[in-house]
Design a protein that fits this description.
The complex is a heterotrimer. By secondary structure, chain A is α+β, with helices and mostly antiparallel strands. Chain A has 2 domains: 51 residues, no CATH class; 308 residues, Cytochrome-c3 Hydrogenase, chain B (Orthogonal Bundle). In chain A, the strands form 3 sheets. In chain A, strands 1-2-3 form a 3-stranded antiparallel beta sheet. Chain A has a 3-stranded antiparallel beta sheet with strand order 6-7-8. A two-stranded antiparallel ribbon of chain A has the order 4-5. In chain A, strand 7 and strand 8 form a beta hairpin. The longest helix of chain A has 29 residues. By secondary structure, chain B is mostly helical. The longest helix of chain B has 35 residues. Chain C is an all-alpha fold. The longest helix of chain C is centred in the middle third of the chain and has 29 residues. In chain C, helix 2 runs antiparallel to helix 3. Chains in contact: A-B, A-C, B-C. Chains B and C meet through helix 1, helix 2, helix 3, helix 4 and helix 5 of B and helix 1, helix 2 and helix 3 of C.
Amino acid sequence: MTLSSIRRVEKRYDPLLTETIVVSVGPQHPSLVSPVQLHIQADGELIERVTVEQGFMHRGIEMLCSQRDWAGCAALLSRTEWLAGMNGHFLLSSAIEELSGLEVPQRAQFLRSLVLELGRLSSHLYWFGDLGLEVGAVTPVFWAMREREPLLELLDMLSGHRWHGAYIVPGGVSHEPPAAFYQRLRAWLPLMRRRINSYEEYFSDNAIWVNRSELIGVLETDYAIKNGASGPVARASAVDCDLRRDAPYAAYGELSFKVPLGEYGDALDRFRVRFMEMRESMNMVEQCLDALAGAELGSARLVGASLDSPSLAAGIQGKAGQDPPLQNQAGQDPPIQIPAGEAFVSVEGPRGELALSVVSDGGHGPARVHLRGPSMYHLHLLDELCRGYLLADLFVIYASLDIMVGEADR
Amino acid sequence: MSPELLTIIVRGGIFTLCLLTAFAYLTFIERRMLAFFTWRVGPNRVGPWGLFQPVADGVKTILKQEMVPMKADKVLYMMSPVIAFAACFGMFGLIPVGEGVWMSNVPVAVLLLLGLSSLGAYGLILAGWSSQSRYPFLGSLRTCAQVISYELALGLTLLVPVIITGSLSFNDIGNIYWGPHWNPLYLLVLLPAGLLFLVAACAETGRVPFDLPECEAEIVAGYHTEYSSMKYAMFPMGEYIAMTAFSAIAVHMFLGGYHLYIPSSIDLTQPWINISNWVGLLVDKIGLSGALAPPWGPPKWLVPEPYWASLSLSPAGLSTTLTFLAKMAILILTFMWVRATLPRMRYDQLMRFGWKLMLPVGLVLVFLTSVLVVFAPPAGSEAEDDYGSRPQPVVEVEDVYASR
Amino acid sequence: MNTTGEYNWVALFLFGGACVLGLAFALAALLRPSNPGLFKRLTFESGARALGDALVRFNVRFYILAIVFLMFDVDVVFIFPWAAAFRLLVFGEENRLFTPMGPACLWEMFVFIGILMLGWAYAYRKGALEWV
């Protein structure tokens, strides 16, 4: 089958003068995890138009960030894309490093990559469970949660928080992980590799799922590029883009990985690409573990004269002898100050390109913050993707885009 | 009141009670099973092992506030859960559960059952229409299309055992494997027909992978979105009882009803031994006497003699009932297993499957069965009969009428 | 065999089932709280205000399918008496006073089912069995 065989709405001869109905899905709907409203104009069961109404989850994160100190800003940013909260911490940390001209030690870079990949795995696992629910299979969601659990426990070991752990801090990571962390992660990897295969087979060997997703919600390559799709959604449409390879950050320049690409850009391709990405992520985690176990890579974060002293060359101004700068107990330490300037950093999140633009006026917090999240763009692809498909396809497409409303609304 | 009527009323009461209990515990078992499939514990808080969970659910349903949408068509809105429930419930008035354990022994039970199962669809369609809301409306349209599409395949698969046994009564059809009609070649059509029946039954009762009428991903809860409290409970109740009923029909039609046979030797072609009455065999072995001797029934001083006989249960009745329930349980558990395993089909795929695959295959099966019946006659006494050399009856049909 | 009584029992059972329902409804009506309000009585639209009427002139795409169904359903009902009497028609029975038809009865039904299949094939070709 080719792209030309895709159904599209045509002007049809209708002697019965039937009307289209508008079905509203959301904000309170059993299959929407987070609130967004979709007005679906349908002719029978055929979707003619989808109008997305968003803002039900708008918390004003960007405005709030500009009113907080740097520490509070990091916490807020990790709550935009909460399934992989370390992306928010990474964005702010690298923005601060860029503003103050810090060099992060090699070991910390590997640890950052490791944590970011664990976040991607956790997010993709959640997506895979949700996908099952959307097509009426109740079991995969429990598989996904079961696999995610040891992962979250590992993250908990790192930072004391399962989702939003502030493990990535300016100047590196907050501390060297305990030895048990490495052991448990190594034990978890082969198990997960086996299970990922069986989970993918559950879907890809199932005629019902393949029929429901093949050539459904086709996103064509140039449309994807024009409309700012990124991440797995763009890669499934054969857009060869991946920040980890194109503009390496953390330790990605030293890791070898493939960027999986789709062929048709349909829901099935997006599904396949995510599963291939999960395998790649596990490979990367393993490479990181090897690197961390092997050669001397320096410390896990900038310490001593470089950060903790009040007269540090990088320009972070903190109280003498206080450590670390972002652990700012209210009323105890004065918030850190970052030199004035502008920084733009981006990261390849689990859903696509997350970018952060920060303006600092040298104060205790950012003057302005702008976040670019992929979900906003993907949410507005829905109209194009759903046109001409059936009502039942809507949630297959929605789930295949893996939209995080909290990040789209911010 | 005649003894017969009283017996029927008492029996009906027992049937009703058993069915309602069965429904309640089926929900419980399904939840525990789904939990088992997904590494969870399932409901285990209410009572020992969560056994009182259905009771708690029932109390909760009754105590729930009821909300009737303003726009709803009140009469139809009230009626449709009753129709949906009563039609499924009524099926058990036609299905024998064991030897002598039945509400009625209607000679055309199969036809009546098909009628009742299509009647149940009215309840669902009207429920969606009368709610005057969009999700139920879409849900009821889907139900309508789905039920009519699979009704045909259902009817056609039921024809296969009917042709083989030449009867529309469950008591006769249950004998299909060991009656005088049997020929092992019939398995060629009975097996695929049984499979088709199970698929069609899934679709008729709206279970996964055919649970589109109430698929929550798009249309919230389908036709019963606007229902609450007791009226809502009628729909799942009807669905579970229909599932039980269809399992019972499948047992009668394709699994040899309430009979139980075991092979007499390793050579399976040898005649099999009938152990349908295994309780009776056990009783003979033990030698029960006095008050314990069968048939069992209520105390004699409580029930007068003419009523007692029809209220008592013989060992044959007991053993066949237990056999039947066990066979049914296997099928019901299969339905639940399927629910834990498969995703939902899409709408047009479902219809395509019904019309373009199930229907022609069903027709072909009917073809094949009739051919088999003619050219591979039963291994019994009729097997040697050649219709050509068969002695002609002395009196022709026309003559019979002429002589009246 | 006198079977009229049997049908009565089925009807009685149905009636009994409806009575049980009535009892349950009555019990629920007695016990449950009732506190109706405007917002509770609005139709559910996923949290949004319902716009317009649900009963629009809707494009029911399966009306052709429904007609095809009616046709086939009636035909299948025709097959039922034939199926029930098939063995009898072919082989006859002891003490039954009519001539068995032999395979002729098979061919006759084949013609009937054949016409049915032709109708099915026609509907297939015409696209009447397609949902959209």
